[in-house]
Every structure is written in structure tokens, then in C-alpha cells.
Design goal:
Elements lengths: L13 H14 L5 E7 L8 E8 L10 E9 L5 H11 L1 H7 L3 E7 L2 E6 L9 E3 L5 H21 L10 H9 L7 H10 L8 E4 L2 E4 L20 E2 L10 E4 L8 E4 L8 E2 L2 H16 L7 H7 L12 H24 L8
Antiparallel strand pairs: 1-2, 2-3, 3-5, 4-5, 6-10, 7-8, 9-12, 10-11
Helix pairs in contact: 2-3, 4-9, 7-9, 8-9
Bound molecules: adenosine-5'-diphosphate (ADP) and magnesium ion.
The site of magnesium ion has 5 residues, from loops.
Length: 342
């Protein structure tokens, strides 16, 4: 991850933007012009994202004319445009109203350039879900959790009964996890606890080691796990949720950007990911910065050393609970007779 790559000229992302621009220009009619208005920071990947102005003559249907988001990257195996189109098309109305339109996409010789409509067509009126106040963040996350799941379930069809805990986790975390670099990182963070079985120590508490789920000796991975399968965003963190308006003025609306996955996946990944992203964001603003009191309160578990939560932390719990209750609410209403699947 390169959090600085979208910042400014002279940094490592420069060449990719120039290549992307050249590629786009070569696919537009000669009379068109493309101008970079400003760089947009905020991404976690090494793509370059800019606000651009594109003019094409004669003006007509399907012709680019106005301000657009331009995203240039070195194409890896699967272009992002494929994921974007798969997500938008499968989610039907939700995809059309809550994901900005991809208006042009070109891939060639290892470079890709995607041109998107600005969410809501005005950048000045947009903020990410990190940059709104706590009430609007809660309302946005609640709506996104509820409406996205409703749309996903509407096209999911019958549950998939062939899965196991191991196969679902494999689809979510990658087939080589935890025997890959990310798995090593988890083991490093958990630290060795020889002779104690499957636990690790954190903030004075003994906690279950999450990697037991993958341990063939324990046998959890082989257990049956039915799931709903459907279109999944795959990178639904707060900065990929753009917000316009507010709850107070009754005009709050939101868009999901930066779609990552192009194939149907066991559902609820996006919801867990959004919750985790909200937790990580909230921890950065928490007075104690301690995660266990928060998780204990969220799951109504006791801690060995009880801790009072301050106002910031209580607000964070409210946000996380809201994402969960909205998600459960959709499942309970839509899938009342498949409770054992969820
Ligand atoms: N369609 C869009 N409308 C408005 N702003 C956008 C749009 N797409 C991207 N952005 C802005 O550009 C930033 C980076 O875009 P994103 O697609 O998330 O790239 P990355 O893959 O680097 O995370 C976003 O955080 C947002 O501020
Ligand atoms: Mg992003």
C-alpha cells in the first residue's frame, strides 16, 4: 500500500498518470482536449486519481464533456473496470444510484485509465464518510449497510450449501492465507505463547487465536458453512464511501467508489469490512486508543480489568452497533426462514 502516491507531481505516481493521459488521448477523437484540474488524495493504492476536464466536439450523447474523475494505474491481472461493471450491473437499481458511472475505460500495454462521473456531479459538495460529523457517519454507514445488503440479497438466489468455514474464509482472505505474508504478519502480532494452546495475550487478557480457524488439527475449517453468495464491493472502507448533504438538512445521500471484486462472493464480507474500517478510524480518535474495552462492550463481554468508556468511545460503539443492527435487520426481514444460513 502506498498512501502517498496520489499526492503531487514529482512523486512515484507521476509516470502512470502521464501514460494514462496519453492512452486516453489516443482513444478520443483528435479534436478533444483533456486537462488535469487537480490531484485527488485519499486513496490507499498506487493508482493516480485526478479531477479532469474533458471536452469533445461535437457535443452529443455519449460524448465526454465536463468534469470527470480520471484514474490511471498500471494494469494488473484484472482491470478495476471489470469489477466496477460487474458490481454495478448485478446490483441493478442500487448500482445505478449508489455507484458513480464509469464512462470510459481503456487498457493497453500495461496501463489502464478509467474515467468516472463525479459522484453526484459536484466534488465541492462531497466528503468521505471519514470527514463528516458523527451523526452523518452513523446514518451513512447504516444506510449503506442496509441498502447494499438488500440489493445483494435480491440477486443472490438460493444459498450456497456446499461451502465450509475454510472455503468461505479462503474466498474472503485469499486461498494462500495464512501461509502468506499477511498470515506471517498476524502471527508476528499475536506473538508466541508456547504451551498455552490456541490463545494469545493482549492488554492483559488471554484471547482466542483467530488462526485456529485454519488449523487442520482443530477441524473447524472443514465444517459446513452455508452462505448467500452475491456481488461484493471488496474494499468498502469509510474513504470509499462518499457523502453529500446531511441528515439535518434531510438531503443526505452517498456513493460507493473504488470497487475491488469482480465475482460473486459469500455475502457479509462488505459489512464486516465496513465495521472494521469504522473501528480502525474510531480507534485513531479514541482517548485511550485501546481496542479491547471497545470490542468487549460491542459484544457484551466482561473484561478482567473493566474500563469506563468516554464519550468518543461510546459514540464509536453506537456506530458499530448500528452497522450490525441494520445488517441483522435486513437478514431478519428478508431471510426469516433461512435463519440458519446467517
Ligand atoms: N467518482 C468519484 N467522484 C468523486 N470523487 C472521487 C470519485 N472517485 C474517486 N474520487 C476521489 O479520489 C480518491 C481516490 O479514488 P479511489 O478510486 O478510491 O482510489 P484508490 O484506489 O487510490 O483508493 C477518493 O478517495 C475520492 O476522494
Ligand atoms: Mg479508495
Amino acid at each position: 500500500m502506498n498512501r502517498d502516491s496520489a499526492k503531487s507531481d514529482g512523486e512515484p505516481g507521476r509516470d502512470v498518470l502521464e501514460s494514462g493521459l496519453a492512452l486516453l488521448r489516443s482513444h478520443l477523437p483528435q479534436s478533444s482536449s483533456v486537462e488535469i484540474v487537480k490531484a485527488l488524495a485519499g486513496g490507499y493504492t498506487d493508482a493516480r486519481v485526478v479531477l479532469s476536464d474533458i471536452a469533445q466536439t461535437p457535443v452529443g450523447d455519449g460524448v465526454l464533456n465536463g468534469q470527470y474523475i480520471l484514474k490511471a494505474g498500471f494494469s494488473t491481472g484484472r482491470p478495476q473496470a471489470e469489477a466496477h461493471n460487474a458490481f454495478v450491473r448485478s446490483l441493478e437499481k442500487y448500482g445505478q444510484t449508489h455507484v458513480p458511472r464509469l464512462v470510459q475505460s481503456v487498457q493497453e500495454s500495461g496501463t489502464s485509465v478509467d474515467v468516472y462521473d463525479i459522484a453526484g456531479l459536484s466534488l465541492d459538495r462531497l466528503r468521505s464518510a471519514e470527514h463528516v460529523d458523527a451523526e452523518d457517519r452513523e446514518e451513512t454507514c447504516a444506510r449503506a449497510a442496509r441498502e447494499l445488503l438488500t440489493a445483494q440479497l435480491a440477486v443472490a438466489g438460493l444459498p450456497d450449501y456446499r461451502g465450509t468455514i475454510g472455503s468461505v474464509l479462503g474466498e474472503w482472505l485469499g486461498g494462500s492465507f495464512p501461509d502468506d505474508q499477511r498470515g506471517s504478519r498476524v502471527r508476528e502480532v499475536l506473538g508466541p505463547m508456547p504451551g498455552t494452546g490456541h490463545v494469545f495475550r493482549h492488554e492483559g487478557e488471554l484471547l482466542p487465536d483467530p488462526l485456529v480457524m485454519f488449523d487442520p488439527g482443530v477441524g473447524l475449517a472443514g465444517r459446513d458453512l452455508a452462505c448467500f453468495r452475491g456481488p461484493t464491493h471488496g474494499d468498502l472502507h469509510l474513504r470509499n464511501v462518499l457523502v453529500r448533504g446531511s441528515r439535518l438538512t434531510k438531503d443526505l445521500t452517498y456513493w460507493l467508489i473504488d470497487v475491488n471484486w469482480d465475482a460473486p462472493t459469500p455475502l457479509l464480507y462488505d459489512h464486516a469490512y465496513l465495521e472494521l474500517s469504522a473501528l480502525l478510524f474510531g480507534l485513531g480518535h479514541s482517548t485511550s486508543g485501546r481496542v479491547l474495552p471497545l470490542l468487549a462492550r460491542l459484544d457484551e463481554q466482561a473484561l478482567t480489568v473493566p474500563v469506563e468508556l468516554d464519550l468518543n468511545d461510546s459514540g464509536l460503539i453506537t456506530l458499530l452497533r448500528r452497522i450490525r443492527t441494520e445488517t441483522r435487520g435486513v437478514l431478519a426481514t428478508r431471510e426469516q426462514k433461512r435463519e440458519d444460513v446467517w
